[in-house]
Amino acid sequence: MACNLFLTLQPGNRQMPALGYGTWQGSGDDLEKGLEIALETGYRHIDTAARYQNEEIIGRVLKKWFDSGKLKREDLFITTKLAPSDMRPDNVEERLRESLRKLQLDYVDLYLIHFPIPIVINGSEAYGDPNITYLDIWKKMEDQVDAGLTKTIGVSNFSLQKVNNILKNCRIKPANNQVEMHVYFQQRELVDFCTKNGVTIVAYAPIGTRGYNTAMKNYGRPTKVLPDLLRDEVVNKIAQKHTKTPAQVLIRFLLQVGVSTIPKSVTPSRIKENFNVFDFTLDEEDMKALRSLDKDTEGRISDFKGWGRLEEHPHFEF
To answer: Per the confidence metrics, is the pTM higher than 0.90?
Structure first.
């Protein structure tokens, strides 16, 4: 059974399945097998990024499914992203074509600016390039829609102010903003603003992200104590009420708020569990209790601090 809940993206009334399969930190055989199981389970929205370095793996699996006749290209919604280190106007088309080559696709459904700041990496040091803005990049993103290389374009990790700035200066509106969002960090003001302006939201880290500290260690950055959403008493009480798991409650909450979400896992049982959220509904009492868990910015996990000198950049605001 495929996801039967969709968000509409412009231009073209593009239908994006509200529940997708996230692939951050996915690699090798684990991702290949995980994606196979995800497609078998019914996921039709796949999220990746050049920065994840796994587009080739995803491309191999997709080609296998297309060649077998199990799926057609139009059955899937594929998102990828422009890497922060490639945020140069002259790079946009070249990098998108490279992603398409790796994914073995003629187009993606959604192409995102992964991060609002162009990152320059010099040895172990990282800093934001002050000479290029996301508006410079956006103009080139619009050109990719014209060229048919992507059906829609959007952003990721953009604040309300940054989205508003693009809306005031664009020819093609952003179709989507992919941001961290979960019960501890509900981003209500941003979600309300985007929704009113026709910008859909995709929530990453819907059940938290234990992989955050792994990534920090890999980059030689400081780690921190992470919240454990799956052990929250309120979440567990609601899960018991519906005979569901805490993860399923956290995912269902976001779907009922009206956003898309992309839980990630390469564990077969969890991939299936995360998809099994369409046979129950959280009532108003449940939703009220879950809304009360919001900690605003204190609940944020990925604050992008500790990444070299990025905080010195004038656009470091989330």
So the answer is: yes
